[in-house]
């Protein structure tokens, strides 16, 4: 890593071993050095004060925060130390602030934020109706669904959106009988038929890129179908060959629904104002009847493996955050004016935008 005692500013980084192995450290260090930054790879088991001065703290502590919030003692101690360290050094710019990150650790929380955004309705954007189960009592859960307008089929998802592989294990449920597989706490959400196409949007500051991925085929409520278990990491991978993504013969597979760039920009602006993250990703599906765009998931610091020129744009976003917001939490309203200045799709080389030409694998 870079020498924290050399000239220039220092970026302290902590990411998990799994994410670290996927990161091109050589390219990151080269890019940072070219812009006058040194890299300090943080160790959570060593006193932070002993690891050198830093000016920016770049992290993906989602799993550690999630574990701490669920009562894990070691994780709680680590997060407490991180928060104390940042409190002791208010000059440090954090990408992204821990309290902002916490908003996306709970699906019910961020679905509520999305649902409460009334302006979405005017743009043909929505989050599918959802409800939270805190009990295994099926009769009570059916009543909760009815009161919130949730109808079969539904996707059952763990309430906790990070922390383990289980956070990405889903169940598609077609009837009341199938609710017995739900393990509280969990969220059930209306399944939107979308012709087995998922649009993953990766955001770095005010730059974004879109990747089209396979997704679940169309389903309807049925008393005869048993729950279907699946993992989003398997079904929605770029190279997935899951049978769950193959449209049935009666589906109109020849009709291609076009993603609306203006809707994507609206979603990004709202997320920056409501949640305030520099590094974020979200999943969109298009209702195959109305054409409205549904936001079905949001992720902190997603994988940017296929994001063109990611490190350059990362540094640009860090410098932009430092210059525009100083040491304020990036969710402050001052950022709204900036994000309204225009979002840039980095894959769009032409004046006329065609999202279908944006595919990255």
UniProtKB/TrEMBL annotation:
Binds 2 magnesium ions per subunit. The keyword Phosphoprotein does not apply. Keywords: ATP-binding, Isomerase, Kinase, Magnesium, Metal-binding, Nucleotide-binding, Transferase. Its cofactor is Mg(2+). Residues 117-339 form the ATP-grasp domain. The keyword Thylakoid does not apply. ATP binds at residues 107, 157, 189-200, 215. InterPro entries: ATP-grasp, Inositol_tetrakis-P_1-kinase, InsP(3)kin_ATP-grasp, ITPK1_N. Gene3D superfamilies: 3.30.1490.220, 3.40.50.11370. 1D-myo-inositol 1,3,4-trisphosphate binds at residues 19, 60, 168, 200, 299, 303. GO terms for biological process: inositol trisphosphate metabolic process. Kinase that can phosphorylate various inositol polyphosphate such as Ins(3,4,5,6)P4 or Ins(1,3,4)P3. Monomer. This is Inositol-tetrakisphosphate 1-kinase. It comes from Danaus chrysippus.
């Amino acid at each position: 890593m870079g020498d924290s005692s050399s000239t220039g500013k220092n970026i302290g980084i902590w990411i998990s071993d799994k994410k670290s192995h996927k990161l091109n450290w050589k390219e990151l260090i080269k890019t940072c050095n070219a812009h006058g930054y040194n890299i300090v790879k943080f160790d959570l088991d060593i006193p932070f004060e002993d690891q050198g001065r830093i000016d920016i703290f770049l992290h993906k502590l989602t799993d550690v925060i999630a574990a701490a919030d669920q009562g894990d003692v070691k994780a709680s101690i680590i997060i407490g130390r991180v928060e104390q360290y940042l409190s002791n050094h208010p000059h440090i710019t954090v990408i992204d602030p821990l309290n902002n990150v916490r908003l996306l650790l709970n699906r019910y929380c961020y679905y509520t934020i999305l649902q409460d955004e009334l302006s979405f309705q005017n743009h043909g954007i929505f989050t599918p109706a959802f409800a939270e189960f805190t009990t295994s009592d099926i009769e009570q859960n059916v009543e909760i669904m009815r009161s919130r307008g949730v109808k079969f089929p539904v996707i059952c998802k763990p309430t906790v959106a990070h922390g383990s592989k289980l956070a990405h294990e889903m169940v598609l449920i077609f009837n009341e009988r199938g609710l017995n597989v739900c393990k509280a706490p969990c969220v059930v959400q209306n399944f939107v038929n979308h012709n087995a196409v998922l649009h993953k949007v990766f955001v770095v500051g005010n730059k974004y890129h879109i990747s089209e991925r396979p997704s679940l085929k169309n389903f309807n409520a049925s008393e005869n179908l048993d729950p279907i278990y699946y993992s989003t990491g398997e079904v929605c991978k770029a190279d997935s060959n899951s049978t769950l993504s193959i449209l049935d013969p009666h589906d109109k597979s020849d009709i291609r629904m076009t993603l609306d760039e203006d809707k994507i920009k609206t979603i990004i602006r709202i997320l920056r104002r409501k949640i305030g993250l520099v590094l974020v990703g979200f999943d969109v599906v298009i209702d195959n009847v109305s054409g409205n765009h549904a936001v079905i998931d949001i992720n902190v610091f997603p994988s940017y493996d296929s994001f063109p020129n990611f490190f350059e744009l990362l540094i640009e976003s860090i410098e932009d955050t430092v210059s525009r917001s100083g040491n304020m939490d990036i969710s402050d309203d001052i950022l709204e004016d900036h994000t309204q200045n225009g979002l840039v799709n980095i894959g769009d080389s032409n004046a006329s935008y065609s999202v279908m030409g944006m595919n990255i694998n």
